[in-house]
Design brief:
The protein is α/β, with parallel strands linked by helices. It has a domain of about 180 residues: pyruvate-formate lyase- activating enzyme (Alpha-Beta Horseshoe), CATH 3.80.30. It contains six helices and 15 strands. The model has no long low-confidence stretch (mean pLDDT about 90). It holds the Pfam family DUF5131. This is DUF5131 family protein.
Length: about 270
């Protein structure tokens, strides 16, 4: 578990990494391409593939060390299979080891709720979170249907320190909202305008309790920046419904004045964040 520069959380924890969505703007994939195995390297102990063969999902018991083409130890990596979905068993006690409350973004380097992720992986992560109730846990997915499926199966915890988020980029994107659990939206990258009607869900109880807004960053992002009025429209509707808004630093130049960076009431605050 690490401190992070992501503005809306204090730490990241990656018990499951990797994703199959294939988003062109994915920062996590870019990071893994830098720190995962290079063509001349391989894991000293190969991760186990989840059965049945062909799932493309992997399990690692211990931190992975790489060797070079001569077989000599080279370095360690958290991504032994690149961006393939991987369960890191050795990380499951990380939340317990940190006694000071933190606001933790869970699986920032993947999608824990992707349709390819085995239920048992998600259940293990939930169990680890419950063993360290001092923290606030922030989950984020582009597959909100998984929240619904787990809820219908009685497998979605209703703890008050669990927050279930959906990443959306346009008004057409479906998101998860429910009054029985904490939900939030991450509108990042904001790629299209949202009208007042598009934001109507903000006025319904519990849908959502927090809205994060951010612009695209990284290669090619200059051509896909949002307009100020897009951000204004979302902010106006959210605030009129009493929903806190958090603008990421990627909006600093666009917004001009001080960024609105609000948190839901009762959420853990760490080091001024």
């Amino acid at each position: 578990m690490h401190k992070t520069d992501i503005e809306w959380c204090s730490h990241t924890w990656n018990p499951v990494t990797g994703c199959k969505h294939g988003c062109e703007y994915c920062y996590a994939r870019r990071m893994v391409s830098r720190f995962g195995p290079h063509p001349c390297e391989r894991p000293i102990i190969e991760p186990l593939e989840v059965l049945p063969k062909g799932t493309g999902c992997y399990y690692v018991e211990q931190p992975t060390k790489l060797c070079d083409e001569t077989g000599e130890p080279a370095r360690s990596t958290a991504y032994p299979k690149g961006f393939a979905p991987t369960y890191h068993a050795y990380t499951m006690d990380y939340p317990e080891k940190r006694k000071t409350p933190a606001r933790i973004f869970v699986s920032s380097m993947g999608d824990l709720f992707g349709e390819w992720v085995p239920d048992i992986w998600i259940e293990d992560v939930f169990a680890a979170c419950k063993r360290a109730p001092q923290h606030t846990y922030l989950f984020l997915t582009k597959n909100p249907q998984r929240y619904l499926d787990m809820g219908h199966a009685g497998k979605l915890p209703m703890e008050r320190n669990f927050w279930y988020g959906t990443t959306i980029t346009s008004p057409e994107t479906e998101y998860f909202g429910a009054s029985c659990v904490n939900t939030f939206l991450s509108i990042e990258p904001l790629l299209e305008p949202f009208s007042a009607d598009d934001c109507a869900g903000f006025r319904r109880l519990g849908e959502p309790l927090w809205v994060i807004i951010g612009a695209m960053t990284g290669p090619g992002s200059k051509r896909k920046q949002p307009k100020r009025e897009w951000v204004e429209a979302i902010t106006e509707v959210a605030q009129s419904a009493g929903v806190p808004v958090f603008m990421k630093n990627s909006l600093k130049d666009l917004w001009g004045g001080p960024l609105i960076q609000e948190y839901p009431e009762g959420m853990v605050r760490v080091d001024g964040k």
